[in-house]
UniProtKB/TrEMBL annotation:
Gene3D superfamilies referenced in this protein's UniProt entry, alphabetically: Aspartate Aminotransferase, domain 1, Type I PLP-dependent aspartate aminotransferase-like (Major domain)
Keywords: Aminotransferase, Pyridoxal phosphate, Transferase
UniProt cofactor(s): pyridoxal 5'-phosphate
Any one Gene Ontology molecular-function term assigned to this protein's record: pyridoxal phosphate binding
Domain of life per record: Bacteria
Protein name, as recorded: (S)-3-amino-2-methylpropionate transaminase
Similarity comment: Belongs to the class-III pyridoxal-phosphate-dependent aminotransferase family.
CDD domains named in the record: OAT_like
Pfam family, one: Aminotran_3
Catalytic activity: (S)-3-amino-2-methylpropanoate + 2-oxoglutarate = 2-methyl-3-oxopropanoate + L-glutamate; 4-aminobutanoate + 2-oxoglutarate = succinate semialdehyde + L-glutamate
Keyword presence, Transmembrane helix: no
Length: 416
Protein backbone atom coordinates (compact mmCIF):
# COMPACT_ATOMS: atom_id res chain seq x y z
CA UNK A 1 0.00 0.00 0.00
CA UNK A 2 1.29 3.47 -0.86
CA UNK A 3 1.42 6.23 1.72
CA UNK A 4 1.44 9.99 1.75
CA UNK A 5 5.03 11.12 2.10
CA UNK A 6 6.24 11.79 5.63
CA UNK A 7 8.00 14.87 4.20
CA UNK A 8 4.67 16.63 4.70
CA UNK A 9 3.94 18.03 8.16
CA UNK A 10 0.23 18.17 9.02
CA UNK A 11 -1.10 21.17 10.96
CA UNK A 12 -4.39 19.41 11.81
CA UNK A 13 -5.81 15.88 11.42
CA UNK A 14 -8.91 17.16 9.58
CA UNK A 15 -10.01 15.44 6.37
CA UNK A 16 -11.99 18.07 4.49
CA UNK A 17 -15.08 16.94 2.66
CA UNK A 18 -16.64 20.22 1.56
CA UNK A 19 -16.51 23.91 2.23
CA UNK A 20 -18.81 26.89 2.28
CA UNK A 21 -17.46 30.41 2.69
CA UNK A 22 -15.22 30.46 5.76
CA UNK A 23 -16.37 27.03 6.93
CA UNK A 24 -15.09 23.49 6.24
CA UNK A 25 -16.98 20.26 6.96
CA UNK A 26 -15.05 17.05 7.52
CA UNK A 27 -16.06 13.56 6.45
CA UNK A 28 -18.05 13.10 9.67
CA UNK A 29 -19.88 16.37 8.92
CA UNK A 30 -18.12 18.19 11.75
CA UNK A 31 -18.05 21.95 11.14
CA UNK A 32 -14.81 23.95 11.40
CA UNK A 33 -14.33 27.67 11.12
CA UNK A 34 -11.53 27.87 8.58
CA UNK A 35 -9.23 30.72 9.54
CA UNK A 36 -6.47 29.33 7.31
CA UNK A 37 -8.21 29.74 3.92
CA UNK A 38 -5.82 27.20 2.41
CA UNK A 39 -2.87 29.43 3.51
CA UNK A 40 -4.57 32.63 2.41
CA UNK A 41 -5.87 31.35 -0.91
CA UNK A 42 -9.65 31.00 -0.87
CA UNK A 43 -10.32 34.73 -1.09
CA UNK A 44 -14.01 34.42 -2.00
CA UNK A 45 -14.50 31.55 0.42
CA UNK A 46 -14.94 27.88 -0.26
CA UNK A 47 -17.20 27.06 -3.19
CA UNK A 48 -18.47 30.55 -3.91
CA UNK A 49 -21.42 29.89 -6.28
CA UNK A 50 -20.18 32.39 -8.91
CA UNK A 51 -16.67 30.92 -8.95
CA UNK A 52 -18.07 27.39 -9.10
CA UNK A 53 -20.36 28.34 -11.99
CA UNK A 54 -17.58 30.06 -13.93
CA UNK A 55 -15.25 27.10 -13.47
CA UNK A 56 -17.93 24.55 -14.38
CA UNK A 57 -18.81 26.47 -17.52
CA UNK A 58 -15.17 26.65 -18.55
CA UNK A 59 -14.46 22.98 -17.78
CA UNK A 60 -17.20 22.02 -20.22
CA UNK A 61 -15.71 24.25 -22.94
CA UNK A 62 -11.97 23.62 -22.77
CA UNK A 63 -9.77 22.78 -19.79
CA UNK A 64 -6.26 23.10 -21.11
CA UNK A 65 -5.59 25.46 -24.00
CA UNK A 66 -1.80 25.68 -23.71
CA UNK A 67 -1.04 29.40 -23.78
CA UNK A 68 2.08 29.41 -25.93
CA UNK A 69 0.42 27.12 -28.46
CA UNK A 70 -3.04 28.70 -28.67
CA UNK A 71 -4.58 31.50 -26.64
CA UNK A 72 -7.94 31.39 -24.91
CA UNK A 73 -10.64 33.89 -24.03
CA UNK A 74 -10.43 33.65 -20.20
CA UNK A 75 -6.72 34.54 -20.41
CA UNK A 76 -7.27 37.47 -22.78
CA UNK A 77 -10.16 38.75 -20.65
CA UNK A 78 -8.15 38.37 -17.45
CA UNK A 79 -5.19 40.32 -18.85
CA UNK A 80 -7.57 43.12 -19.80
CA UNK A 81 -9.40 43.08 -16.47
CA UNK A 82 -6.15 43.12 -14.46
CA UNK A 83 -5.76 46.76 -15.44
CA UNK A 84 -8.63 47.48 -13.01
CA UNK A 85 -6.47 46.40 -10.09
CA UNK A 86 -2.81 46.65 -11.11
CA UNK A 87 -0.71 49.60 -9.93
CA UNK A 88 -0.30 52.35 -12.49
CA UNK A 89 2.35 51.64 -15.09
CA UNK A 90 2.37 47.88 -14.53
CA UNK A 91 0.57 47.02 -17.73
CA UNK A 92 2.17 43.74 -18.76
CA UNK A 93 1.47 40.33 -17.24
CA UNK A 94 3.00 36.88 -17.30
CA UNK A 95 1.15 33.94 -15.74
CA UNK A 96 2.32 30.73 -14.06
CA UNK A 97 0.82 28.34 -11.51
CA UNK A 98 2.29 28.78 -8.04
CA UNK A 99 3.82 31.53 -5.96
CA UNK A 100 7.28 29.96 -6.20
CA UNK A 101 7.12 29.86 -9.98
CA UNK A 102 6.10 33.50 -10.11
CA UNK A 103 8.99 34.42 -7.81
CA UNK A 104 11.34 32.59 -10.17
CA UNK A 105 9.79 34.39 -13.13
CA UNK A 106 10.43 37.74 -11.42
CA UNK A 107 14.00 36.73 -10.63
CA UNK A 108 14.69 35.74 -14.24
CA UNK A 109 13.08 38.91 -15.55
CA UNK A 110 15.12 41.05 -13.15
CA UNK A 111 18.38 39.39 -14.16
CA UNK A 112 17.68 39.51 -17.90
CA UNK A 113 16.33 43.06 -17.87
CA UNK A 114 19.20 44.52 -15.84
CA UNK A 115 22.02 42.23 -16.90
CA UNK A 116 22.98 42.08 -13.20
CA UNK A 117 23.37 38.89 -11.16
CA UNK A 118 22.48 39.64 -7.53
CA UNK A 119 19.20 39.93 -5.64
CA UNK A 120 18.79 41.52 -2.22
CA UNK A 121 16.17 39.73 -0.13
CA UNK A 122 15.07 40.77 3.35
CA UNK A 123 15.53 38.77 6.53
CA UNK A 124 12.42 36.83 7.46
CA UNK A 125 11.06 36.79 3.92
CA UNK A 126 9.43 33.69 2.48
CA UNK A 127 9.35 33.34 -1.29
CA UNK A 128 8.77 29.64 -1.92
CA UNK A 129 10.24 26.17 -1.92
CA UNK A 130 11.80 25.70 -5.35
CA UNK A 131 15.57 26.01 -5.18
CA UNK A 132 15.80 29.61 -6.39
CA UNK A 133 12.81 30.71 -4.29
CA UNK A 134 14.23 28.87 -1.25
CA UNK A 135 17.54 30.66 -1.82
CA UNK A 136 15.68 33.94 -1.40
CA UNK A 137 13.83 32.65 1.67
CA UNK A 138 15.07 33.42 5.17
CA UNK A 139 11.96 32.89 7.29
CA UNK A 140 13.29 29.64 8.75
CA UNK A 141 16.16 27.21 8.21
CA UNK A 142 13.62 24.40 7.69
CA UNK A 143 13.13 25.80 4.19
CA UNK A 144 16.89 25.67 3.45
CA UNK A 145 18.66 23.15 5.65
CA UNK A 146 19.96 20.06 3.87
CA UNK A 147 19.15 21.44 0.41
CA UNK A 148 22.48 23.18 -0.13
CA UNK A 149 24.04 24.34 -2.30
CA UNK A 150 21.34 26.90 -2.91
CA UNK A 151 21.48 29.51 -5.65
CA UNK A 152 24.33 32.00 -5.41
CA UNK A 153 23.80 35.71 -5.96
CA UNK A 154 21.54 36.35 -2.96
CA UNK A 155 22.36 38.92 -0.29
CA UNK A 156 20.14 39.27 2.76
CA UNK A 157 19.47 42.58 4.48
CA UNK A 158 17.43 43.21 7.67
CA UNK A 159 13.67 43.73 7.50
CA UNK A 160 12.34 46.33 9.94
CA UNK A 161 11.09 43.98 12.64
CA UNK A 162 10.46 46.04 15.80
CA UNK A 163 9.36 43.26 18.18
CA UNK A 164 12.29 41.05 17.16
CA UNK A 165 14.80 43.73 18.05
CA UNK A 166 12.78 45.23 20.89
CA UNK A 167 12.87 48.58 19.12
CA UNK A 168 10.43 51.20 17.93
CA UNK A 169 9.31 51.10 14.30
CA UNK A 170 11.49 54.16 13.60
CA UNK A 171 14.59 52.53 15.09
CA UNK A 172 13.96 49.27 13.22
CA UNK A 173 13.45 51.12 9.92
CA UNK A 174 16.53 53.27 10.43
CA UNK A 175 18.61 50.18 11.21
CA UNK A 176 17.27 48.25 8.18
CA UNK A 177 18.05 51.08 5.75
CA UNK A 178 21.51 51.69 7.20
CA UNK A 179 22.31 47.99 6.95
CA UNK A 180 21.08 47.97 3.36
CA UNK A 181 23.46 50.80 2.50
CA UNK A 182 26.21 48.89 4.27
CA UNK A 183 25.37 45.77 2.22
CA UNK A 184 25.47 47.72 -1.05
CA UNK A 185 28.87 49.05 0.00
CA UNK A 186 30.36 45.77 1.26
CA UNK A 187 28.62 42.72 -0.25
CA UNK A 188 26.80 43.47 -3.49
CA UNK A 189 27.68 46.64 -5.38
CA UNK A 190 24.71 48.51 -6.86
CA UNK A 191 25.94 47.79 -10.39
CA UNK A 192 25.79 44.05 -9.59
CA UNK A 193 22.37 44.25 -7.95
CA UNK A 194 19.34 43.46 -10.11
CA UNK A 195 16.54 43.76 -7.57
CA UNK A 196 15.29 44.25 -4.06
CA UNK A 197 12.72 41.53 -3.32
CA UNK A 198 10.40 42.35 -0.43
CA UNK A 199 7.07 41.35 1.13
CA UNK A 200 4.90 44.32 2.21
CA UNK A 201 4.03 42.22 5.27
CA UNK A 202 6.34 39.35 6.24
CA UNK A 203 4.09 36.31 5.88
CA UNK A 204 5.66 33.02 6.91
CA UNK A 205 8.24 35.18 8.73
CA UNK A 206 5.71 36.19 11.38
CA UNK A 207 3.12 38.66 10.02
CA UNK A 208 5.30 41.76 10.39
CA UNK A 209 4.17 44.79 8.36
CA UNK A 210 6.89 46.84 6.67
CA UNK A 211 6.88 50.61 7.21
CA UNK A 212 6.17 53.32 4.65
CA UNK A 213 9.60 54.84 5.39
CA UNK A 214 11.36 51.54 4.78
CA UNK A 215 9.66 50.93 1.43
CA UNK A 216 10.21 54.57 0.43
CA UNK A 217 13.88 54.03 1.30
CA UNK A 218 14.02 50.99 -0.97
CA UNK A 219 12.29 52.93 -3.76
CA UNK A 220 14.75 55.80 -3.45
CA UNK A 221 17.80 53.51 -3.53
CA UNK A 222 16.31 51.49 -6.40
CA UNK A 223 15.83 54.68 -8.43
CA UNK A 224 19.28 55.96 -7.58
CA UNK A 225 21.04 52.76 -8.64
CA UNK A 226 18.81 51.34 -11.39
CA UNK A 227 17.80 48.44 -9.15
CA UNK A 228 14.30 46.97 -9.57
CA UNK A 229 11.88 47.01 -6.64
CA UNK A 230 10.03 43.68 -6.70
CA UNK A 231 7.15 43.23 -4.25
CA UNK A 232 6.08 39.70 -3.38
CA UNK A 233 2.32 40.08 -2.95
CA UNK A 234 1.66 36.34 -3.05
CA UNK A 235 0.13 36.37 0.44
CA UNK A 236 -0.66 40.08 0.84
CA UNK A 237 -2.45 40.61 -2.49
CA UNK A 238 -6.09 40.38 -3.53
CA UNK A 239 -7.60 42.26 -0.60
CA UNK A 240 -6.01 40.20 2.17
CA UNK A 241 -4.72 43.26 4.06
CA UNK A 242 -7.85 45.40 3.66
CA UNK A 243 -6.45 47.15 0.56
CA UNK A 244 -6.23 45.44 -2.80
CA UNK A 245 -2.42 45.15 -2.57
CA UNK A 246 -0.38 45.12 0.61
CA UNK A 247 1.93 47.82 -0.74
CA UNK A 248 -1.10 50.14 -1.13
CA UNK A 249 -0.82 50.76 2.63
CA UNK A 250 2.61 52.28 2.16
CA UNK A 251 2.30 54.42 -0.95
CA UNK A 252 5.25 52.84 -2.73
CA UNK A 253 5.51 52.16 -6.47
CA UNK A 254 6.85 48.68 -7.36
CA UNK A 255 8.62 47.84 -10.64
CA UNK A 256 7.52 44.20 -10.52
CA UNK A 257 4.57 42.74 -8.61
CA UNK A 258 4.25 39.03 -7.85
CA UNK A 259 0.77 37.61 -7.28
CA UNK A 260 -0.73 34.16 -6.60
CA UNK A 261 -2.86 32.63 -3.79
CA UNK A 262 -6.05 34.76 -3.68
CA UNK A 263 -6.13 35.42 -7.42
CA UNK A 264 -8.34 32.48 -8.43
CA UNK A 265 -10.10 31.44 -5.19
CA UNK A 266 -8.14 28.19 -4.99
CA UNK A 267 -7.31 27.26 -8.58
CA UNK A 268 -3.56 27.20 -9.24
CA UNK A 269 -2.69 30.51 -10.87
CA UNK A 270 0.07 33.03 -10.30
CA UNK A 271 1.65 35.85 -12.21
CA UNK A 272 3.99 38.77 -12.37
CA UNK A 273 3.16 42.28 -13.54
CA UNK A 274 5.60 44.92 -14.77
CA UNK A 275 5.69 47.64 -17.38
CA UNK A 276 5.61 46.55 -21.00
CA UNK A 277 8.98 48.29 -21.39
CA UNK A 278 10.60 46.24 -18.62
CA UNK A 279 9.06 42.94 -19.81
CA UNK A 280 10.26 43.83 -23.30
CA UNK A 281 13.85 43.74 -22.09
CA UNK A 282 13.52 39.96 -21.53
CA UNK A 283 13.93 37.66 -24.51
CA UNK A 284 10.84 36.27 -26.24
CA UNK A 285 10.48 32.62 -25.27
CA UNK A 286 12.66 33.04 -22.18
CA UNK A 287 9.69 32.22 -19.98
CA UNK A 288 6.68 29.97 -20.42
CA UNK A 289 5.46 26.65 -19.09
CA UNK A 290 3.02 23.85 -19.92
CA UNK A 291 0.28 24.74 -17.46
CA UNK A 292 0.56 28.52 -17.01
CA UNK A 293 -2.67 30.51 -17.23
CA UNK A 294 -4.88 27.41 -17.22
CA UNK A 295 -8.25 28.24 -18.79
CA UNK A 296 -10.33 27.10 -15.80
CA UNK A 297 -8.06 28.99 -13.39
CA UNK A 298 -8.36 32.15 -15.49
CA UNK A 299 -12.16 31.82 -15.60
CA UNK A 300 -12.14 31.43 -11.81
CA UNK A 301 -9.93 34.52 -11.49
CA UNK A 302 -12.37 36.55 -13.56
CA UNK A 303 -15.24 35.40 -11.35
CA UNK A 304 -13.11 36.19 -8.27
CA UNK A 305 -12.62 39.75 -9.51
CA UNK A 306 -16.37 40.14 -10.05
CA UNK A 307 -17.24 38.77 -6.63
CA UNK A 308 -14.62 40.94 -4.94
CA UNK A 309 -16.10 44.02 -6.52
CA UNK A 310 -19.78 43.14 -6.06
CA UNK A 311 -19.41 42.03 -2.44
CA UNK A 312 -16.78 44.67 -1.60
CA UNK A 313 -14.49 42.02 -0.18
CA UNK A 314 -11.62 44.48 0.25
CA UNK A 315 -13.90 46.60 2.44
CA UNK A 316 -15.03 43.50 4.31
CA UNK A 317 -11.41 42.46 4.90
CA UNK A 318 -10.71 45.88 6.41
CA UNK A 319 -13.85 45.89 8.62
CA UNK A 320 -13.67 42.26 9.73
CA UNK A 321 -9.94 42.68 10.22
CA UNK A 322 -10.49 45.48 12.73
CA UNK A 323 -13.16 43.41 14.48
CA UNK A 324 -10.82 40.43 14.67
CA UNK A 325 -7.92 42.57 15.84
CA UNK A 326 -10.17 43.80 18.67
CA UNK A 327 -10.93 40.23 19.71
CA UNK A 328 -7.29 39.12 19.52
CA UNK A 329 -6.12 42.16 21.44
CA UNK A 330 -8.73 41.52 24.15
CA UNK A 331 -7.52 37.91 24.43
CA UNK A 332 -3.91 39.08 24.63
CA UNK A 333 -4.78 41.41 27.50
CA UNK A 334 -5.92 38.39 29.52
CA UNK A 335 -2.78 36.32 28.81
CA UNK A 336 0.71 37.68 29.34
CA UNK A 337 2.06 34.89 27.10
CA UNK A 338 0.72 36.79 24.06
CA UNK A 339 3.09 39.70 23.69
CA UNK A 340 1.97 41.16 20.35
CA UNK A 341 -1.05 41.24 18.05
CA UNK A 342 -0.12 42.57 14.63
CA UNK A 343 -0.77 42.53 10.90
CA UNK A 344 -3.06 44.29 8.45
CA UNK A 345 -6.67 43.57 7.50
CA UNK A 346 -7.40 39.85 7.62
CA UNK A 347 -3.74 38.95 7.93
CA UNK A 348 -3.30 38.99 11.71
CA UNK A 349 -1.02 37.19 14.11
CA UNK A 350 -0.73 36.69 17.87
CA UNK A 351 2.84 36.27 19.06
CA UNK A 352 3.74 34.08 22.03
CA UNK A 353 6.80 34.69 24.20
CA UNK A 354 8.06 33.19 27.44
CA UNK A 355 8.32 35.25 30.62
CA UNK A 356 11.96 35.86 29.60
CA UNK A 357 10.85 37.33 26.30
CA UNK A 358 11.97 34.35 24.18
CA UNK A 359 9.84 33.33 21.17
CA UNK A 360 7.58 30.50 22.34
CA UNK A 361 6.66 28.18 19.46
CA UNK A 362 5.63 25.32 21.78
CA UNK A 363 2.85 27.34 23.42
CA UNK A 364 1.73 28.80 20.08
CA UNK A 365 1.39 25.27 18.69
CA UNK A 366 -0.54 24.10 21.76
CA UNK A 367 -2.96 27.02 21.34
CA UNK A 368 -3.31 26.32 17.60
CA UNK A 369 -4.06 22.64 18.29
CA UNK A 370 -6.52 23.42 21.07
CA UNK A 371 -8.30 25.73 18.63
CA UNK A 372 -8.58 22.93 16.07
CA UNK A 373 -10.16 20.73 18.76
CA UNK A 374 -12.66 23.51 19.42
CA UNK A 375 -13.47 23.71 15.70
CA UNK A 376 -11.29 26.68 14.71
CA UNK A 377 -8.59 25.98 12.12
CA UNK A 378 -5.47 28.11 12.46
CA UNK A 379 -1.83 28.00 11.37
CA UNK A 380 1.39 29.20 12.94
CA UNK A 381 4.24 31.22 11.41
CA UNK A 382 7.42 33.00 12.51
CA UNK A 383 10.98 31.69 12.66
CA UNK A 384 10.23 29.79 15.89
CA UNK A 385 6.61 29.04 14.97
CA UNK A 386 5.77 31.51 17.73
CA UNK A 387 2.97 33.36 15.94
CA UNK A 388 -0.55 32.00 15.53
CA UNK A 389 -2.01 33.50 12.39
CA UNK A 390 -5.59 34.29 11.44
CA UNK A 391 -6.33 34.42 7.70
CA UNK A 392 -9.99 33.65 7.03
CA UNK A 393 -11.60 34.00 3.62
CA UNK A 394 -12.43 37.61 2.80
CA UNK A 395 -16.15 36.72 2.88
CA UNK A 396 -15.96 35.93 6.60
CA UNK A 397 -18.99 37.36 8.43
CA UNK A 398 -19.25 39.42 11.60
CA UNK A 399 -20.84 36.45 13.40
CA UNK A 400 -18.04 34.12 12.30
CA UNK A 401 -15.36 36.53 13.53
CA UNK A 402 -17.14 36.71 16.88
CA UNK A 403 -17.42 32.96 17.03
CA UNK A 404 -13.71 32.62 16.22
CA UNK A 405 -12.92 35.14 18.98
CA UNK A 406 -14.91 33.03 21.48
CA UNK A 407 -13.22 29.80 20.37
CA UNK A 408 -9.79 31.43 20.58
CA UNK A 409 -10.48 32.52 24.15
CA UNK A 410 -11.62 29.00 25.07
CA UNK A 411 -8.51 27.50 23.45
CA UNK A 412 -6.23 29.87 25.37
CA UNK A 413 -8.03 29.05 28.62
CA UNK A 414 -7.29 25.34 27.90
CA UNK A 415 -3.55 25.71 27.40
CA UNK A 416 -2.41 28.74 29.43
N1 LIG B 1 5.72 34.18 -1.55
C1 LIG B 1 4.99 34.36 -0.42
C2 LIG B 1 4.97 35.72 0.20
C3 LIG B 1 4.25 33.31 0.12
O1 LIG B 1 3.54 33.50 1.23
C4 LIG B 1 4.28 32.05 -0.52
C5 LIG B 1 3.48 30.88 0.01
N2 LIG B 1 3.21 30.84 1.35
C6 LIG B 1 5.07 31.90 -1.68
C7 LIG B 1 5.76 32.99 -2.16
C8 LIG B 1 5.16 30.59 -2.40
O2 LIG B 1 3.97 30.24 -2.98
P1 LIG B 1 3.66 28.74 -3.42
O3 LIG B 1 3.53 27.94 -2.16
O4 LIG B 1 2.37 28.85 -4.18
O5 LIG B 1 4.77 28.28 -4.27
Amino acid sequence: MAHLSPMLKQATPVIADRGEGAVIFDEQDRRYLDFTAGIGVTSTGHAHPDVVAAAQEQVAKIIHAQYTTVMHRPLLDLVERMSEVLPEGLDSMFFANSGSEAVEAALRLARQATGRPNIVAFHGGFHGRTVAAASLTTSGTKFRSGFAPLMPGVAVSPFPNPTHYGWSQEQATDFALRELDHLLQTVTAPQDTAAFLVEPVLGEGGYVPASAEFLAGLRERADRHGILLVVDEVQTGWGRTGRFWGHDHFGVRPDVLITAKGIASGFPLSGIAASQELMGRAWPGSQGGTYGANAVACAAALATLDVMRREDLVGNAAARGEQLRGRLTAAAREHAEITDVRGLGLMLGSEFRTADGEPDGATATRAQQAAAEHGLLLLTCGAWGQVVRFIPALVVTEEQVDEAGDLWQKSLADVL
